[in-house]
Amino acid sequence: MAGQIPGLKKQLDEHVNLLRVLKGLLLSFLITLPCFLAFALFLTYTDFPEKYTFIAVLITTVISVLTASAYSTRNVRSKGWMNGCAVGVLYVAVLYLASSIIFMNFAVDVQVLLTVVIGAIVGCLGGIFGINLR
Q1: In the prediction, which pLDDT does 119 show?
Q2: What pLDDT, on a 0 to 100 scale, did the predictor assign at position 13?
Q3: Is 44 exposed, middle or buried (0-12, 13-18, 19+ CB in 10 A)?
Q4: Where are the chain's structural domains?
Q5: What is this structure's pTM?
Q6: Distance (Å, rounded) from C-alpha 46 to C-alpha 93?
Q7: Burial of 31 (0-12, 13-18, 19+ CB in 10 A)
Q8: Transmembrane residues, as ranges (predicted)?
Q9: Are residues 49 and 100 in contact, defined by beta-carbon separation less than 8 angstroms?
């Protein structure tokens, strides 16, 4: 491209790549939505105790973030953990905002904080795994 600063592409690849993070975020929700729908149907038609809902959300979060962060970092040269962490934290933030709007409850409790920490850690691990898939 004309007028592009030399080395800008290299500098961007060394930090969080927003396009790859957004693709990973989209993938994470493409995994999450069917899982949540299946779990909602399961809860509707069985006597499964609702107290285990948070565990199901955490399992879905781990699977979605791990897969999406690995996908988004497989072509990154360095700092895959940072890109993966961004996917995990953004995933949790979007999930929190959506649930808060739906339930009209913006409270931050231990479960929310635990979900953020798990999302960040799993995102980092997925990023590390994804960068090593090359």
Answers
A1: 96
A2: 53
A3: exposed
A4: 17-131
A5: 0.83
A6: 30
A7: middle
A8: 21-46, 52-72, 84-106, 112-133
A9: no
Question: Which tokens go with 99?
Answer: 């649930």
**Nearest 5°: CA angle at 131, between 8 and 26?**
80
3-state secondary structure the chain: CCCCCCCHHHHHHCCCCHHHHHHHHHHHHHHHHHHHHHHHHHHHHCCCCHHHHHHHHHHHHHHHHHHHHHHHHCCCCCCHHHHHHHHHHHHHHHHHHHHHHHHCCCCCCHHHHHHHHHHHHHHHHHHHHHHCCC
Tell me how far apart the alpha carbons of residues 85 and 113 are, in angstroms, rounded to a whole number. 15
pLDDT at position 1 is 46
Tokens of 126: 């997925």
Q: How many CB atoms lie within 10 A of CB 43?
A: 15
The closest alpha carbon to 69, from 2, 9, 118, 1, belongs to 118
Over the chain (134 residues), what is each successive 10-residue block's mean pLDDT? 54 69 94 94 89 89 95 86 94 94 92 94 95 82
